[in-house]
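User: Here's a chain of 397 residues. Predict its fold as C-alpha cells.
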Amino acid sequence: MKVFFRTVHLYLSLAAGLVIMIACLTGAILVFEKELQMAFNNSRYYVAAQGNPMAVDDLVLSVKAQHPEARLAGVKLYSDPERTVEIGLSFPEKVGKGNANEKQGAKPEGPKVAAAGKPAAQGGGRASHTAFVNPYTAEVVELYTYRETFFYKVFALHRWLLGSSDGIGKYIVGVSTFLFMFITITGIVLWWPKTRRILVQRLKIKQDAGWKRLNHDLHIVLGFYASIFLFIFSFTAMSWSFKWFNKGLYKVTSSSPETPEPPASVYQPGKASISYQDAYRIASEKFSGAVWYQLRSAKDSAGIFTVAVLPEGRMENATDTYYLDQYSGEIAGTLRFAEKNLGQRVRSYVKPVHVGSVFGTTSKVISFIVCVLGVTFPVTGVVMWLNRLKKERKRST
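Assistant: Prediction complete.
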C-alpha cells in the first residue's frame, strides 16, 4: 500500500512542486507584509500629535481640492492619535503609473444633498488609491496605490503567477494547491512509523549523519511538523481559486452568503446629510475603544451612512457595522460580527488563518517558518527521488 502512496506523492509533487515553491516563497514574504510596510514607510502611517485634530470634513475637502476628479470611497480614522487618516479615492482615469480605472462604468450617483462647506456624499465604490493625510495639518503625506508596490507584485505572483485575477495563472495555482493537500496527506501516510523505535527516529534530525541522511531527515522530519499547517494553508487557499469551495462552505454550514439589505434613510427634502465629522463623533461616542472607524457616506438621497468599527482585540475581519440615517444621525440598523450567520463568520476567518494572523505575532512567526520550509520540501524530495533512482540502477547492474 505504501508503494501506491509513494507513487501518488511523487508524481503529484513533480506536477505541482514548482508552483508550490513559488506559493510558499511568496507566502513567506507576505506574512509580515503589514509590518514591513509600516517599518519601511513609517512617515506614511505615523505623524507627531499636535493638539486637537482637524475636522474630518476639512481633511476630505483638502484632498478633494488637490484631486477634484476623484470620487471619495470612504474615510478610515484610527483611535491612535499618531496615525494618519486614510481617505480612499477612486479615479476615473489613470493617475501617474497607477491603475486607477477600476470603477469606470459605475452607476451614476443619485441626487445629493450637501450642507454648505461640507463635501457632498460620495460613498460607495472601491478605492484604487489611498490618500494618507496628517489629521493635524490636512497635508497629504502620500497618495498611495497598492498596485505600484513590490508587495503587489509578490501578491500577484502568489495568487495568479503574475497573470490577471481571472486568468490561467489563477487556476494553475488553485489546482496546485489542491494537489498539495493530497501531497501532505500521502506524506503523513508515508511518514507513519510501524514501531516506537522508528517513531523516535522520525521525530528528530540525525545531525551527525551523511548528507543523504540529512536530506532525508530534512524532508521527512520537518515535513511531518509542517504538514498540518501546510494542509491548512492550501485548504484555505481554495476560497480564492474556486467558487465551488465558497459555495460548499456555506452549504456545509447551512448558511447564506447574502447579508441583510441595509436600511434606507428617511428622506427629508431640503435637509442636509450629516457630515463625516458628525458620523465620526456619533460612532466614537457610542462605540468608544475601537481600533479604527471606517466611514462611508450615503450613495444617494435615500442611502444610509455606514460606519464599520473594529473593536479592540479582534482580528481585522471581525468588524461591526452600524447604519446611520444620513439626515437624523440616528442608528437605523446594525450588523455586528456576532450576528452574522455561521458561514459568514467562518468565511471571515479564512484569510486570517491563511496568512497566519489569527493569533497575532506568534501565529505569524509559525506561518513564516512553515512557508520557508515549504520551499525546501520539493527540493529535498527530488533529491531523495534521484538518490533512490541511482540506488535502483546500481542494483540492476
